[in-house]
């Protein structure tokens, strides 16, 4: 290949030699090629062209072997590759000496060796060293990382070879000897640190070297300094690792001293063991009482539900009878004897109604205890919780003090109703025990509520014996009590403190000996959530007659509801959830549907779920009736479903108000 300004020189290689070279190098994994110089007419080398290349060379250049012969360097390779080695190839041709170096062809790192051939020829062999270079770089990085780890750790590490020359020493090991790593490196250990000769450390190292084994021992490295030493043989090196255990030895020494003091004070230890035994017995008693309370709570929930159902139709029928008899007793045509008998009967019915109301309050308080294990916080009326505590603690207070109330205008507190009631109950009982019996007129227990910023404050004060500063300081400690053995476990106030803190509040106390004590409960304010509620009871003249469906599996309850509502409205009764669904399939023209939440076959929740699928337009007319026994499913349902509910037993006026406020029928 030539032009007017350049010429090529024929390479004096016989075809047989090229054929032999091609045969020998065809399968070789390394690239091999023959180039020849392209000179100008004046004799200067302008370029190089390929005469021959094996398949590995073609692959390295991203070509097929047939493409390369006759091609110039710049046509095939970039300036970063072989084409950029033009000056080097010229130097090889003109000097007649081989040359080796590295360069990059694409993403591949190459090691190239150029050998001059006669008459402007160059034999170029290329080897891919990318992987080996990466391995070397990775090894260097790993060694650097290991060195960094050994230098940055707070422990001692060094190695010696079989001639006891130090092959590595980290800065902590050098610092332990008072020397620098540079003065120790490659020196014989016993010459560099003669203070080690004849020590247990030297004996351990020599045993490990002789046996090619492992040693673990403690070594005193200073007056008050100890190290845990590990020595092991690894190939041609002996490695030593030591960790400072001075603090551990100090703790051990302190423990030994403590054990010695305990042995010398055996009587004191026995007294301590007796106190601990008493505390454990008190804790066990408290656990037993907790289990009894839990069982009582479960019993209260079930019994409360069973009482509320018959109590509903007892109170309903009493109210109905009072309402029916009152107009008769006022009729002017009734004789004096008849009026007297009717008034006496009305008075008896009213007293019976008051008794039923007292039963309802007692059942409600028991159910409050039954819900004490629920952890959900919500808006709580602190006055109602205080009244609950007063009603439950009255047997303790009745003979000791008068209860005075100083209630302020306070918003609901973020709390747990049952747990807050338990806290107030215990504080009231605690106040009663602080007051001697027999002087009822002189002593007071005062309940005070007020708002302070974002908090609701409740104070329970008494005019009892008070507490000394020492007793006040320990008042909330578990198992601390000033009462005689067997009369108190000392857990009450500590449990109250835990309950208040679980409601994100705080419980504190102040006291003056001889004048009384004050316990203050601080609780965060909570806004009441908006739930569909029961409408206010109101009397409306000429109210329109409506259709009402009552669903309950208690026949007496459905009977009393029919009796209360039937005078003004059309009442239809279903005695089970299944019967209600069948009835609503045939006739859904009801203005209000009263449905019991817990029934035997299908619960009110099941009825709601089925109607939500089939007739969702009926759900807005539902009012759920509850007797106070809630399963986990029932609690979750009442939280999630935005429908009004009424507790058994209920007021007739509330029933009438719910019917009168029923939403208009659609469809």
TrEMBL record:
According to its UniProt record, this protein's enzyme class is: transferase
What CDD domains does the record point to? HisKA, PAS, REC
PAS domain: residues covered: 142-187
Q: Which superkingdom, per the lineage?
A: Bacteria
Q: Name one Pfam family in it.
A: HATPase_c
Modified-residue entries (4-aspartylphosphate), positions: 596
Q: Which Gene3D superfamilies match?
A: 1.10.287.130, 3.40.50.2300, Histidine kinase-like ATPase, C-terminal domain, PAS domain
The family database entries (SMART domains) matched by this protein are listed as:
HATPase_c, HisKA, PAS, REC
Every Response regulatory domain range: 547-663
SUPFAM superfamilies associated with the record? ATPase domain of HSP90 chaperone/DNA topoisomerase II/histidine kinase, CheY-like, Homodimeric domain of signal transducing histidine kinase, PYP-like sensor domain (PAS domain)
Listed EC numbers: 2.7.13.3
Q: Which InterPro entries match?
A: CheY-like_superfamily, HATPase_C_sf, HATPase_dom, His_kinase_dom, HisK_dim/P_dom, HisK_dim/P_sf, PAS, PAS-like_dom_sf
What are the entry keywords? Phosphoprotein
* Ranges for domain Histidine kinase: 302-527
- Which reactions is this enzyme annotated as catalysing? ATP + protein L-histidine = ADP + protein N-phospho-L-histidine
Q: What protein name does the entry list?
A: histidine kinase
Q: Which organism is it from?
A: Corallococcus caeni
